[in-house]
Amino acid sequence: EAQVTQNPRYLITVTGKKLTVTCSQNMNHEYMSWYRQDPGLGLRQIYYSMNVEVTDKGDVPEGYKVSRKEKRNFPLILESPSPNQTSLYFCASSPRSGLDTQYFGPGTRLTVL
Amino acid sequence: GQQLNQSPQSMFIQEGEDVSMNCTSSSIFNTWLWYKQDPGEGPVLLIALYKAGELTSNGRLTAQFGTTRKDSFLNISASIPSDVGIYFCAGPVSGNTGKLIFGQGTTLQVKP
Question: Residue B86 and residue B95: Cα distance in Å, rounded?
Answer without folding.
Answer: 25
